[in-house]
Amino acid sequence: MPGLSGRMSTVIKAKISKLLDRAEDPAETLEYSYQKQIELLQNVKKGIADVVTSKKRLQLQEQKLRDQVVKLDTQARQALAAGNEDLARTALERKNVAQTELQSLDSQIGQLEQQQEQMTASEQKLRAKIEQFRSRKEVIKAQYSAAEAQVRISEAATGVGEEMADVGLAMQRALDKTENMKARADAVQELEAAGTFEDLTQLGAGEDDIDRQLRELSSGSEVDAELAKMKAELGSGSPSSAGELGAGAPAGEPAQAEQAGPSQGQAP
Amino acid sequence: MIVRISTEGQYELTESDADALNALDNQAVGACEEGDEERFNATFKELIDFVRKNGQPVAEDRLEPSDAILPPPDVSFEEARAEFSGEGLIPG
Protein backbone atom coordinates (compact mmCIF):
# COMPACT_ATOMS: atom_id res chain seq x y z
CA MET A 1 0.00 0.00 0.00
CA PRO A 2 1.57 3.27 -1.06
CA GLY A 3 2.05 5.57 1.82
CA LEU A 4 0.70 8.72 0.21
CA SER A 5 -0.89 10.70 2.95
CA GLY A 6 -0.24 14.33 2.02
CA ARG A 7 -3.19 16.44 3.08
CA MET A 8 -3.54 18.32 -0.20
CA SER A 9 -3.66 15.26 -2.44
CA THR A 10 -5.86 13.41 0.03
CA VAL A 11 -8.46 16.19 0.08
CA ILE A 12 -8.58 16.35 -3.71
CA LYS A 13 -8.70 12.63 -4.16
CA ALA A 14 -11.52 12.35 -1.65
CA LYS A 15 -13.50 14.99 -3.52
CA ILE A 16 -13.03 13.24 -6.85
CA SER A 17 -14.05 9.91 -5.33
CA LYS A 18 -17.12 11.51 -3.85
CA LEU A 19 -18.14 12.78 -7.28
CA LEU A 20 -17.93 9.25 -8.61
CA ASP A 21 -19.56 7.53 -5.66
CA ARG A 22 -22.63 9.64 -6.04
CA ALA A 23 -23.30 7.86 -9.32
CA GLU A 24 -25.98 5.20 -8.94
CA ASP A 25 -25.55 3.93 -12.45
CA PRO A 26 -21.99 4.35 -13.67
CA ALA A 27 -22.95 3.69 -17.28
CA GLU A 28 -25.50 6.47 -17.21
CA THR A 29 -23.12 8.77 -15.39
CA LEU A 30 -20.41 8.16 -17.96
CA GLU A 31 -22.84 8.91 -20.77
CA TYR A 32 -24.02 12.07 -19.07
CA SER A 33 -20.47 13.20 -18.43
CA TYR A 34 -19.57 12.60 -22.02
CA GLN A 35 -22.44 14.81 -23.18
CA LYS A 36 -21.36 17.42 -20.64
CA GLN A 37 -17.83 17.35 -22.00
CA ILE A 38 -19.02 17.87 -25.55
CA GLU A 39 -21.02 20.85 -24.32
CA LEU A 40 -18.04 22.24 -22.43
CA LEU A 41 -15.81 21.88 -25.46
CA GLN A 42 -18.31 23.86 -27.51
CA ASN A 43 -18.21 26.57 -24.87
CA VAL A 44 -14.43 26.64 -24.97
CA LYS A 45 -14.53 27.04 -28.74
CA LYS A 46 -17.03 29.84 -28.43
CA GLY A 47 -14.90 31.44 -25.73
CA ILE A 48 -11.86 31.43 -28.00
CA ALA A 49 -13.90 32.96 -30.81
CA ASP A 50 -15.04 35.73 -28.45
CA VAL A 51 -11.47 36.44 -27.48
CA VAL A 52 -10.48 36.68 -31.13
CA THR A 53 -13.27 39.21 -31.65
CA SER A 54 -12.13 41.28 -28.70
CA LYS A 55 -8.58 41.15 -29.95
CA LYS A 56 -9.65 42.43 -33.35
CA ARG A 57 -11.47 45.31 -31.73
CA LEU A 58 -8.35 46.19 -29.79
CA GLN A 59 -6.34 46.07 -33.00
CA LEU A 60 -8.76 48.50 -34.61
CA GLN A 61 -8.35 50.71 -31.59
CA GLU A 62 -4.60 50.46 -31.96
CA GLN A 63 -4.83 51.66 -35.55
CA LYS A 64 -6.99 54.59 -34.49
CA LEU A 65 -4.41 55.58 -31.90
CA ARG A 66 -1.61 55.32 -34.45
CA ASP A 67 -3.51 57.64 -36.76
CA GLN A 68 -4.04 60.00 -33.87
CA VAL A 69 -0.32 60.08 -33.07
CA VAL A 70 0.47 61.03 -36.66
CA LYS A 71 -2.26 63.64 -36.69
CA LEU A 72 -1.15 65.24 -33.42
CA ASP A 73 2.43 65.33 -34.61
CA THR A 74 1.39 67.13 -37.77
CA GLN A 75 -0.73 69.54 -35.77
CA ALA A 76 2.17 70.31 -33.45
CA ARG A 77 4.38 71.11 -36.45
CA GLN A 78 1.74 73.31 -37.95
CA ALA A 79 1.20 75.16 -34.68
CA LEU A 80 4.93 75.69 -34.25
CA ALA A 81 5.31 76.90 -37.83
CA ALA A 82 2.57 79.39 -37.13
CA GLY A 83 4.46 80.52 -34.04
CA ASN A 84 1.95 79.15 -31.52
CA GLU A 85 4.23 77.28 -29.15
CA ASP A 86 1.59 76.68 -26.46
CA LEU A 87 -0.68 74.94 -28.91
CA ALA A 88 2.22 72.89 -30.21
CA ARG A 89 3.04 71.84 -26.66
CA THR A 90 -0.54 70.76 -26.00
CA ALA A 91 -0.58 68.72 -29.19
CA LEU A 92 2.70 67.07 -28.21
CA GLU A 93 1.41 66.32 -24.72
CA ARG A 94 -1.59 64.62 -26.21
CA LYS A 95 0.62 62.75 -28.61
CA ASN A 96 2.69 61.57 -25.69
CA VAL A 97 -0.39 60.22 -23.89
CA ALA A 98 -1.56 58.50 -27.06
CA GLN A 99 1.85 56.89 -27.48
CA THR A 100 1.82 55.60 -23.92
CA GLU A 101 -1.63 54.13 -24.44
CA LEU A 102 -0.43 52.61 -27.65
CA GLN A 103 2.36 50.83 -25.82
CA SER A 104 0.01 49.39 -23.24
CA LEU A 105 -2.46 48.36 -25.94
CA ASP A 106 0.38 46.70 -27.81
CA SER A 107 1.35 44.57 -24.85
CA GLN A 108 -2.29 43.67 -24.14
CA ILE A 109 -2.78 42.50 -27.70
CA GLY A 110 0.45 40.52 -27.46
CA GLN A 111 -0.75 38.81 -24.30
CA LEU A 112 -4.13 38.03 -25.82
CA GLU A 113 -2.43 36.52 -28.83
CA GLN A 114 -0.20 34.35 -26.69
CA GLN A 115 -3.08 33.16 -24.56
CA GLN A 116 -5.21 32.50 -27.60
CA GLU A 117 -2.50 30.21 -28.96
CA GLN A 118 -2.29 28.34 -25.68
CA MET A 119 -6.06 27.99 -25.57
CA THR A 120 -6.23 26.64 -29.08
CA ALA A 121 -3.54 24.09 -28.28
CA SER A 122 -5.31 22.99 -25.13
CA GLU A 123 -8.64 22.81 -26.96
CA GLN A 124 -7.08 20.34 -29.37
CA LYS A 125 -5.69 18.32 -26.51
CA LEU A 126 -9.08 18.25 -24.82
CA ARG A 127 -10.74 17.18 -28.03
CA ALA A 128 -8.36 14.23 -28.26
CA LYS A 129 -9.06 13.32 -24.64
CA ILE A 130 -12.80 13.39 -25.16
CA GLU A 131 -12.47 11.16 -28.18
CA GLN A 132 -10.44 8.74 -26.11
CA PHE A 133 -12.99 8.94 -23.35
CA ARG A 134 -15.79 8.17 -25.79
CA SER A 135 -14.34 4.82 -26.79
CA ARG A 136 -13.36 3.95 -23.21
CA LYS A 137 -16.83 4.65 -22.00
CA GLU A 138 -18.35 2.11 -24.37
CA VAL A 139 -16.02 -0.59 -23.05
CA ILE A 140 -16.83 0.28 -19.46
CA LYS A 141 -20.56 0.32 -20.15
CA ALA A 142 -20.39 -3.14 -21.67
CA GLN A 143 -18.35 -4.41 -18.74
CA TYR A 144 -20.70 -2.86 -16.28
CA SER A 145 -23.92 -4.36 -17.61
CA ALA A 146 -22.27 -7.79 -17.74
CA ALA A 147 -21.18 -7.65 -14.16
CA GLU A 148 -23.87 -5.49 -12.67
CA ALA A 149 -24.49 -7.93 -9.86
CA GLN A 150 -21.03 -7.29 -8.55
CA VAL A 151 -22.12 -3.74 -7.73
CA ARG A 152 -18.53 -2.62 -7.39
CA ILE A 153 -17.27 -0.53 -10.24
CA SER A 154 -14.15 -1.99 -11.77
CA GLU A 155 -10.76 -0.43 -11.32
CA ALA A 156 -10.87 0.60 -14.95
CA ALA A 157 -14.15 2.40 -14.43
CA THR A 158 -12.67 4.29 -11.52
CA GLY A 159 -9.74 5.22 -13.72
CA VAL A 160 -12.03 6.48 -16.46
CA GLY A 161 -14.12 8.33 -13.94
CA GLU A 162 -11.05 10.09 -12.61
CA GLU A 163 -9.86 10.90 -16.11
CA MET A 164 -13.32 12.21 -16.90
CA ALA A 165 -13.39 14.43 -13.84
CA ASP A 166 -9.95 15.73 -14.75
CA VAL A 167 -10.87 16.53 -18.34
CA GLY A 168 -13.94 18.29 -17.00
CA LEU A 169 -11.77 20.34 -14.66
CA ALA A 170 -9.29 21.17 -17.42
CA MET A 171 -12.10 22.40 -19.63
CA GLN A 172 -13.71 24.39 -16.89
CA ARG A 173 -10.39 26.14 -16.27
CA ALA A 174 -9.87 26.73 -19.97
CA LEU A 175 -13.30 28.29 -20.11
CA ASP A 176 -12.66 30.51 -17.09
CA LYS A 177 -9.46 31.70 -18.71
CA THR A 178 -11.14 32.67 -21.97
CA GLU A 179 -13.78 34.53 -19.98
CA ASN A 180 -11.13 36.42 -18.05
CA MET A 181 -9.28 37.35 -21.22
CA LYS A 182 -12.46 38.51 -22.87
CA ALA A 183 -13.47 40.55 -19.84
CA ARG A 184 -10.07 42.24 -19.82
CA ALA A 185 -10.19 43.04 -23.52
CA ASP A 186 -13.71 44.39 -23.12
CA ALA A 187 -12.66 46.53 -20.19
CA VAL A 188 -9.95 48.16 -22.31
CA GLN A 189 -12.47 48.69 -25.05
CA GLU A 190 -14.92 50.32 -22.64
CA LEU A 191 -12.27 52.61 -21.25
CA GLU A 192 -11.59 53.79 -24.73
CA ALA A 193 -15.28 54.20 -25.53
CA ALA A 194 -15.58 56.41 -22.47
CA GLY A 195 -12.95 58.67 -24.01
CA THR A 196 -10.37 57.95 -21.37
CA PHE A 197 -7.59 57.56 -23.88
CA GLU A 198 -8.15 61.05 -25.13
CA ASP A 199 -8.55 62.67 -21.76
CA LEU A 200 -5.29 64.09 -20.44
CA THR A 201 -6.51 64.38 -16.88
CA GLN A 202 -7.42 60.71 -16.65
CA LEU A 203 -4.66 58.45 -17.73
CA GLY A 204 -6.29 55.15 -16.94
CA ALA A 205 -7.95 53.15 -14.23
CA GLY A 206 -6.08 52.13 -11.11
CA GLU A 207 -3.47 54.82 -11.43
CA ASP A 208 -2.74 56.82 -8.33
CA ASP A 209 -1.50 60.38 -7.93
CA ILE A 210 2.13 59.34 -7.69
CA ASP A 211 1.93 57.38 -10.93
CA ARG A 212 0.29 60.30 -12.64
CA GLN A 213 2.78 62.85 -11.39
CA LEU A 214 5.71 60.65 -12.33
CA ARG A 215 4.21 60.16 -15.74
CA GLU A 216 3.66 63.89 -16.13
CA LEU A 217 7.26 64.51 -15.15
CA SER A 218 8.69 62.19 -17.77
CA SER A 219 6.06 63.23 -20.26
CA GLY A 220 6.96 66.86 -19.62
CA SER A 221 10.62 66.34 -20.41
CA GLU A 222 9.78 64.24 -23.45
CA VAL A 223 7.48 66.93 -24.69
CA ASP A 224 10.13 69.58 -24.11
CA ALA A 225 12.71 67.55 -25.95
CA GLU A 226 10.37 66.90 -28.82
CA LEU A 227 9.39 70.52 -29.01
CA ALA A 228 13.04 71.54 -29.15
CA LYS A 229 13.72 69.00 -31.86
CA MET A 230 10.74 70.19 -33.87
CA LYS A 231 11.90 73.79 -33.51
CA ALA A 232 15.33 72.83 -34.77
CA GLU A 233 13.82 71.04 -37.75
CA LEU A 234 11.66 73.99 -38.58
CA GLY A 235 14.65 76.27 -38.19
CA SER A 236 12.73 78.39 -35.73
CA GLY A 237 14.42 77.13 -32.56
CA SER A 238 17.41 78.87 -31.07
CA PRO A 239 20.66 77.19 -32.17
CA SER A 240 21.82 76.67 -28.58
CA SER A 241 18.82 74.56 -27.65
CA ALA A 242 19.23 72.40 -30.71
CA GLY A 243 22.89 71.98 -29.91
CA GLU A 244 22.19 70.92 -26.34
CA LEU A 245 19.76 68.37 -27.53
CA GLY A 246 22.15 67.01 -30.08
CA ALA A 247 24.79 66.47 -27.44
CA GLY A 248 22.58 64.70 -24.92
CA ALA A 249 19.93 62.99 -26.99
CA PRO A 250 20.50 62.52 -30.66
CA ALA A 251 17.35 62.76 -32.74
CA GLY A 252 15.40 63.47 -29.53
CA GLU A 253 14.17 59.90 -29.13
CA PRO A 254 11.77 59.68 -26.20
CA ALA A 255 13.82 57.08 -24.27
CA GLN A 256 16.90 59.21 -24.44
CA ALA A 257 15.05 62.43 -23.96
CA GLU A 258 13.92 61.07 -20.61
CA GLN A 259 17.51 60.81 -19.48
CA ALA A 260 18.27 64.23 -20.85
CA GLY A 261 16.19 65.47 -17.94
CA PRO A 262 14.26 68.64 -17.22
CA SER A 263 17.16 70.90 -18.11
CA GLN A 264 15.77 70.69 -21.63
CA GLY A 265 12.70 72.44 -20.29
CA GLN A 266 14.77 75.51 -19.58
CA ALA A 267 15.76 75.88 -23.21
CA PRO A 268 14.47 79.14 -24.61
CA MET B 1 2.24 4.41 -7.24
CA ILE B 2 0.43 6.80 -9.50
CA VAL B 3 0.19 10.53 -8.91
CA ARG B 4 -2.03 12.74 -11.01
CA ILE B 5 -1.32 16.39 -11.64
CA SER B 6 -4.81 17.71 -12.33
CA THR B 7 -5.45 18.92 -15.90
CA GLU B 8 -2.02 17.54 -16.89
CA GLY B 9 -1.90 13.77 -16.47
CA GLN B 10 -0.70 10.85 -14.40
CA TYR B 11 2.84 9.94 -13.41
CA GLU B 12 4.18 6.71 -12.01
CA LEU B 13 6.55 7.10 -9.08
CA THR B 14 8.28 4.63 -6.83
CA GLU B 15 7.26 3.91 -3.26
CA SER B 16 10.44 5.52 -2.03
CA ASP B 17 9.24 8.88 -3.34
CA ALA B 18 6.25 8.85 -0.98
CA ASP B 19 7.95 10.48 1.99
CA ALA B 20 9.28 13.38 -0.01
CA LEU B 21 5.90 13.88 -1.68
CA ASN B 22 4.01 13.81 1.61
CA ALA B 23 6.41 16.27 3.17
CA LEU B 24 6.12 18.77 0.31
CA ASP B 25 2.36 18.32 0.16
CA ASN B 26 1.92 19.01 3.87
CA GLN B 27 4.30 21.97 3.72
CA ALA B 28 2.19 23.47 0.94
CA VAL B 29 -0.99 23.05 2.96
CA GLY B 30 0.75 24.52 5.99
CA ALA B 31 1.82 27.58 4.02
CA CYS B 32 -1.75 27.91 2.80
CA GLU B 33 -3.15 27.85 6.31
CA GLU B 34 -0.64 30.41 7.49
CA GLY B 35 -1.55 32.66 4.58
CA ASP B 36 2.04 32.57 3.32
CA GLU B 37 1.53 32.95 -0.42
CA GLU B 38 5.21 33.09 -1.32
CA ARG B 39 6.04 29.92 0.55
CA PHE B 40 2.99 28.16 -0.87
CA ASN B 41 3.95 29.03 -4.45
CA ALA B 42 7.54 27.91 -3.91
CA THR B 43 6.62 24.66 -2.20
CA PHE B 44 3.87 23.81 -4.65
CA LYS B 45 6.19 24.40 -7.59
CA GLU B 46 8.75 22.15 -5.95
CA LEU B 47 6.09 19.48 -5.51
CA ILE B 48 4.97 19.63 -9.16
CA ASP B 49 8.59 19.66 -10.36
CA PHE B 50 9.34 16.66 -8.17
CA VAL B 51 6.53 14.62 -9.74
CA ARG B 52 7.47 15.63 -13.28
CA LYS B 53 11.15 14.92 -12.72
CA ASN B 54 10.94 11.66 -10.80
CA GLY B 55 7.78 10.26 -12.37
CA GLN B 56 7.25 8.41 -15.63
CA PRO B 57 4.22 9.64 -17.57
CA VAL B 58 1.49 6.98 -17.50
CA ALA B 59 0.54 5.75 -20.98
CA GLU B 60 -2.59 7.37 -22.38
CA ASP B 61 -4.36 4.04 -22.87
CA ARG B 62 -3.74 2.88 -19.34
CA LEU B 63 -6.65 3.88 -17.15
CA GLU B 64 -6.02 3.45 -13.49
CA PRO B 65 -7.10 5.43 -10.50
CA SER B 66 -4.39 7.56 -8.92
CA ASP B 67 -3.00 7.09 -5.46
CA ALA B 68 -2.80 10.83 -5.10
CA ILE B 69 -4.19 13.79 -7.02
CA LEU B 70 -2.51 17.18 -6.99
CA PRO B 71 -4.16 20.49 -7.94
CA PRO B 72 -3.55 21.92 -11.44
CA PRO B 73 -0.03 23.35 -11.92
CA ASP B 74 -1.48 26.83 -12.44
CA VAL B 75 -3.51 26.78 -9.24
CA SER B 76 -3.56 30.17 -7.55
CA PHE B 77 -2.97 30.76 -3.87
CA GLU B 78 -6.57 31.90 -3.45
CA GLU B 79 -7.90 28.76 -5.12
CA ALA B 80 -5.70 26.56 -2.99
CA ARG B 81 -6.78 28.33 0.15
CA ALA B 82 -10.42 27.94 -0.77
CA GLU B 83 -9.77 24.29 -1.52
CA PHE B 84 -8.71 23.59 2.02
CA SER B 85 -11.41 25.63 3.66
CA GLY B 86 -14.17 23.60 2.08
CA GLU B 87 -15.01 25.36 -1.16
CA GLY B 88 -12.70 24.98 -4.08
CA LEU B 89 -11.74 23.74 -7.49
CA ILE B 90 -13.66 20.57 -7.08
CA PRO B 91 -17.01 21.02 -5.44
CA GLY B 92 -17.07 18.96 -2.25
What does the model show?
The complex is a heterodimer of chains A (268) and B (92). With 268 residues, chain A is mainly alpha-helical. Chain A is built from 7 helices and no strands. The longest helix of chain A is centred in the middle third of the chain and has 62 residues, at 85-146. Chain A is elongated, with a radius of gyration of 30 Å. Mean pLDDT of chain A is 71; it is low at 198-205 and 237-268. A 4-stranded mixed sheet of chain B has the order 3-2-1-4, covered by helices on one side. In chain B, helix 1 (18-33) runs antiparallel to helix 2 (37-54). Residues 86-92 of chain B have low confidence and may be disordered. At the A-B interface, helix 1 and helix 4 of A face helix 1 and strand 4 of B.
Short description:
Chain A has 268 residues and is mainly α.
Task: Based on the model shown, name its key terms.
heterodimer, A: 268 residues, mainly alpha, 7 helices, 80% helix, elongated, disordered C terminus, B: 92 residues, alpha+beta, four-stranded mixed sheet, 3 helices, 14% strand
The chain pair forming the largest interface, with residue counts per chain, is: A-B, 31 and 38 residues
Q: Give the % helix of chain A.
A: over 70%
Poorly predicted residue ranges of chain B = 86-92
What letter string, H or E per element, gives the SSE order of chain B?
A: EEHHEEH
> SSE order of chain A in H/E notation?
HHHHHHH
How far is the first residue's CA from the last residue's CA of chain B?
25 Å
- Helix content range of the residues of chain B, please? 40-55%
Number of E-type strands of chain A? 0
How much is the average pLDDT of chain A?
71
H/I helix tally of chain A: 7
How many separate helices of chain B?
A: 3
Q: What can be said about the biggest beta sheet of chain A?
A: none
Layout of strands and helices, then pairs:
The complex is a heterodimer of chains A (268) and B (92).
Chain A: H1 7-21, H2 26-81, H3 85-146, H4 155-193, H5 209-234, H6 239-248, H7 254-260
Helix pairs in contact in A: 1-4, 2-3, 2-4, 2-5, 3-4, 3-5, 5-6, 5-7
Chain B: E1 2-5, E2 9-12, H1 18-33, H2 37-54, E3 56-57, E4 68-70, H3 77-83
Parallel strand pairs in B: 1-4
Antiparallel strand pairs in B: 1-2, 2-3
Helix pairs in contact in B: 1-2
